[in-house]
Write a structure and sequence with these properties.
Mean pLDDT: 82
Number of strands: 5
Shape: elongated
Number of domains: 2
Length: 195
């Protein structure tokens, strides 16, 4: 069963167009996908051909579902392309969704795998710090203070990782809430619609 997707390719700024700015072309309920090359995040077209900043384009879709389907198909054929999809409010907030080839998902900042890895690193650092404190307390070694100093540094690093992971989780919760609000405001845009 096929699904026809209507996409408008629009230059971000075109002085010969009325209106010249892409933000004046997008309507509530529509979404805009911005294609970028994964390496270097340079603007490109949907097929991964670099456009430069002067020729940068966005793709306008009638719904989030249409954008997701189109972008998923594009990254299968052009794995070097990444699509950041925004609602009609534009790039003032993080994207509703970022679509990349499955081989590049681990490289996305704050993805679930990175958050899980950070939790394991934090647990290891806390256990190491506890071991160092124990060693300092029960050891007669001449390294007085060094194990405690290392333990404190491990705890500080663990705290920073927890803070970073919490920030990633907060951004993800906000993105999901915006995505759900977009879907509620524009039911035809829902990502849960049947294929």
């Amino acid at each position: 069963m096929g699904y026809a997707v209507t996409v408008r390719v629009v230059r971000l700024y075109d002085p010969s167009r009325q209106p010249p700015d892409w933000m004046d072309l997008i309507q509530p309920g529509e979404v805009a996908a911005f294609p970028l090359l994964i390496d270097g995040e340079q603007p490109c077209d949907a097929d991964g051909r670099p456009t430069g900043h002067g020729g940068a384009v966005c793709l306008l879709f009638e719904s989030l579902l249409a954008a997701e389907r189109f972008c998923e198909a594009q990254v299968q054929g052009h794995p070097a392309v990444r699509f950041d999809v925004f609602d009609h409010a534009g790039r003032s907030r993080p994207p509703l969704v970022t679509i990349v080839h499955p081989s590049h998902r681990a490289r996305l900042e704050g993805n679930a795998e990175i958050r899980r890895r950070n939790h394991w690193i934090v647990a290891t650092l806390v256990a190491t710090a506890a071991g160092l404190f124990w060693y300092e307390w029960y050891s007669d070694a001449a390294l007085i203070g060094l194990p405690t100093l290392l333990a404190l540094n491990a705890l500080v690093f663990a705290g920073r990782l927890l803070q970073l992971t919490a920030a990633y989780a907060g951004v993800e919760r906000a993105r999901l809430a915006r995505q759900q609000a977009h879907a509620a405001d524009h039911p035809t845009s829902s990502t849960t619609a049947p294929p």
